[in-house]
Specification:
14 strands, Thrombin, subunit H, globular
Length: 253
């Protein structure tokens, strides 16, 4: 006697559900690996290495070693570094980006100017093999001669060969920005509440009159390519005619 049609349907549903279950396991594993690492990347161009940051809108860097051509991006997952090949894409305003085949560890960006005295964290990688990650603390500074974001020079700034291209982060979620971050904020921010304020773009010496001592004082500061520059990355990605489809590979699961 033939099997009734209703008895066969559960088998078809079970067979169809198997690939979905396997995909869910793979995606969950990939999410867990990304959560272990940070958005600091090294960009290798024809001119050498430089630091960059992987954001929710792609990798951004200063293009100090090259402004066009092939590039390799070194990122870090839970089990070590990974290298992705791509090409440099100019954003304008001294910023550059690349598009990778896989989704990298990422950080969300913040779109407001910081207040004077606000604490920030600098983070980057200074060795070509990327093994040594460094972090240091600083504060936002103000100067009457500069229109833009300045940071106090950290005491340990000389401990690394270069600060250029390193990410500048605000710590912890800001209630003023919650409506703009979207419901998946905690999923996209893999870095314990870090939010990218900008990239270290240079060092500058400024002389001012000391209001207490009556003499001139020269101090060194860090300049930052901040939200007014990072918006170029956001608008660039939104203008693209195609939507990035992430590839999930065995070597990053």
């Amino acid at each position: 006697m033939s099997t009734p049609p209703l008895a066969r349907r559960p088998r078809r549903r079970a067979a169809a559900a198997a690939p979905l279950a396997l995909a869910a396991v793979l995606l969950a594993g990939c999410q867990g690996t990304r959560a272990l690492m940070d958005p600091a990347v090294l960009v290798k161009t024809s001119g050498g290495f430089e630091q960059g940051v992987s954001t929710d809108y792609g990798v951004v860097f200063l293009g100090r070693t090259a402004r066009s051509g092939d590039v390799e991006v070194m990122c870090w997952y839970g089990d070590g570094p990974n290298i992705e090949s791509s090409v440099i894409e100019p954003l304008g305003g001294g910023l550059y980006t690349v598009e990778t085949e896989i989704r990298l560890p990422e950080v969300v960006m913040v779109y407001r100017d910081p207040e004077a005295g606000e604490k920030v964290e600098l983070m980057g990688r200074w060795s070509p093999d990327g093994v040594k990650k460094w972090t240091m603390s600083s504060k936002v500074a103000r100067h009457p001669s500069v229109d833009g974001i300045l940071l106090e020079l950290p005491d340990d700034a000389e401990d690394v060969p270069s600060l250029l291209g390193a990410g500048v982060y605000l710590e912890g979620p800001d209630p003023r920005e919650w409506p703009f971050l979207g419901g998946d904020f905690l999923l996209r921010d893999k870095n314990r509440g870090r939010r990218l304020l900008g990239l270290v773009s240079g060092r500058i010496r400024l002389t001012t009159d000391d209001p207490e001592g009556g003499f001139r004082v020269t101090r060194e500061y860090l300049t930052v390519a901040g939200p007014e520059s990072l918006w170029r990355l956001v608008t660039y990605r939104r203008r693209l005619t195609h939507k990035q489809r992430w590839v999930y590979r065995e070597d990053i699961l």
